[in-house]
Design goal:
- The protein folds into two domains: about 10-45, no CATH class; about 45-124, Serine Threonine Protein Phosphatase 5, Tetratricopeptide repeat.
- About 65% of the residues lie in helices and about 0% in strands.
- It contains seven helices and no strands.
- The termini are far apart.
Length: about 120
């Protein structure tokens, strides 16, 4: 039987990963996006999930936090699905620093987790 081979065009990412194997995935990341490799390297040193999320928040939402400990408490509460506690902690952050826009973003996320998306928009 003659089997026709389909010519598949590989993306650059697929080509790098398949040729070099999983042992050199870090090198593939560096070739695809040097900035991603730097971020990945920085996150590898982070020990807890809360610290990892805080690093991501710091990267996504640059803000000069006055109290990162409170932010960590809010994140731990979110992880534990203790949404009411997370709301109170985030409101405390906002009361202390009304310009802390990442706290508003997280507060909206928590309200969404609680199923209160549209009812709190005016309250933020």
């Amino acid at each position: 039987m003659n089997k026709k081979k389909k010519n598949k065009k590989k993306s650059m990412g697929e080509d790098l990963i398949s040729e070099e194997g999983l042992s050199s995935i870090g090198e593939a990341f560096r070739k695809l996006d040097p900035h991603m490799a730097i971020r990945l390297k920085a996150l590898q040193g982070v020990e807890s999930p809360a610290e990892w999320v805080m690093e991501v928040i710091f990267d996504l939402f640059p803000y000069a936090w006055k109290d990162t400990e409170l932010l960590g408490e809010a994140i731990l509460s979110i992880f534990a699905c203790e949404y009411e506690e997370a709301v109170e902690t985030l409101k405390g952050i906002i009361h202390m620093s009304p310009d802390a826009y990442p706290a508003y973003h997280l507060l909206g996320h928590v309200y969404g987790c609680m199923g209160m998306k549209s009812s709190v928009i005016g309250k933020l």
